[in-house]
Amino acid sequence: MSRVGKHPVEIPAGVQVAIAGRTLTAKGKLGELKLELTELVDTKVEGSKVTVSPRDATTPSRMMWGTTRALVASMVRGVSQGYSKTMEITGTGYRAAVQGDKLVMNLGFSHDVVYPIPQGIKVTCEKPTSIKVEGVDKRLVGQVCAELRTWRPPEPYKGKGMKFEGEQILRKEGKKK
């Protein structure tokens, strides 16, 4: 039995969840998200709760039970509270700034890195060495942060690069004479 799937998802005040066919839609003060439901699970909206149950006892159906419940819970939290991740840039001369709908980063290359900000994502730079990524979709926020990090991941010797706020970088000792 799924330990995640058996718990119903609470719908907070101000959020509307509806199922039309195989599409679940969540609307809240921050936006709207849609999810295509699989045919392996049954999803029902009952009052202020969304319940997910497997259609049969097969392994794929039980696997999708907890996954679907987690996706629905992420959608409900996203449209009511939103998601945000903060990244820190460490390194001499490394900085970032938002210019219109683009994030311009100076990461030690011979040119600036220009990253177009996707639709539904808000990027702010309170400091030149801090990037805050906010959005309704948890997957999209994480994907944007992962793409930004690929430009200059943190290196273990000096710790230079882009890292998540609070992330510990395993430091290595340098070469000895």
Automatic annotation (TrEMBL):
GO CC terms on record?
Answer: cytosolic large ribosomal subunit
Coiled-coil stretches, from where to where?
none
Q: Which GO terms describe its biological process?
A: cytoplasmic translation
Q: Which GO terms describe its molecular function?
A: rRNA binding; structural constituent of ribosome
Residues annotated as domain Large ribosomal subunit protein uL6 alpha-beta? 11-82, 91-163
Stretch list, region Disordered: 157-177
Keywords, A to Z? Ribonucleoprotein, Ribosomal protein, RNA-binding, rRNA-binding
State the source organism's domain of life: Bacteria
Name one matching Pfam family: Ribosomal_L6
Assembly, per entry:
Part of the 50S ribosomal subunit.
Concerning HAMAP family, the annotation shows: Ribosomal_uL6_B
Quote the function comment for this protein: This protein binds to the 23S rRNA, and is important in its secondary structure. It is located near the subunit interface in the base of the L7/L12 stalk, and near the tRNA binding site of the peptidyltransferase center.
Q: What family does this belong to?
A: Belongs to the universal ribosomal protein uL6 family.
Q: What is this protein called?
A: Large ribosomal subunit protein uL6
Gene this chain is encoded by:
rplF
